[in-house]
Amino acid sequence: MDQKQVEQIDQVSRSWASARPSVQSRVKVLEVAFVSALRDQLRDHQRNQAVGTAHQLADSLVAYRLSEGASLAEKLELRFQEDIENDTDILRETGHDLESLIEIVGKAA
Q1: 60-108: pLDDT as tens digits
Q2: 62 Cβ contact list (under 8 Å, min separation 6)
Q3: 60-98 burial string, b = 16+ CB within 10 Å, else e?
Q4: 43 to 14, 33, 51, 77, 79: CA distances (angstroms)
Q5: Dihedral of alpha carbons 82, 85, 89, 91, sign
Q6: What is the DSSP letter of 76?
Q7: How do residues 30-65 score in pLDDT, each as one tens digit?
Q8: In sequence order, which ranges of the chain are alpha helices (DSSP H)?
Q9: Coil, strand, or helix at residue 98?
Q10: Based on the structure, what is the number of domains in the chain?
Q11: What is the pTM of this model?
């Protein structure tokens, strides 16, 4: 690796370190919305927030080349647009995808 590549990697690492709290906060919004859906208490404002947050999260993860995480965030965006609290299969899939997303974000350096 040449010096320029090392500097680019270092810059991306610093940028991720600064963005990570925001990304984790977005994941938390999705977690709270999911728990509300499980309890059949997901309200329209919370659903809309989850949809917007998942979209922002997908964009952020693409920027950091976390494509698998971005894909999961896009799935969550679409699921929160649906009436997920009334479909146990969709709830189960959403929970699985959310767990995978949490793991990806947690492992990102």
Answers
A1: 999 888 999 999 999 999 999 998 988 999 999 999 999 999 999 999 8
A2: 70
A3: bbeebebeebbbbbbbbbebbeeebbeeeeebeebeebb
A4: 37, 9, 12, 15, 14
A5: positive
A6: H
A7: 999 999 999 999 999 999 999 999 999 999 999 888
A8: 3-38, 44-63, 67-81, 88-107
A9: helix
A10: 1
A11: 0.89
Looking up residue 29, the CATH number of its domain turns out to be: 1.20.120
Q: How many Cα atoms sit within 13 Å of 76 on the Cβ side? A: 37
| pLDDT tens digits for range 12-31 | 778 888 889 999 999 999 99
Note the residue count of the chain: 109
Tokens of 28: 């938390």
Q: What pLDDT is recorded for position 109?
A: 62
Instruction: Residue 26: give the domain boundaries.
Output: 3-107
User: Which phi-psi region, left, alpha or beta, contains residue 99 (left: φ > 0; alpha: ψ -120 to 50)?
Assistant: alpha
| Contact of 51 with 77, CB cutoff 8 Å | yes
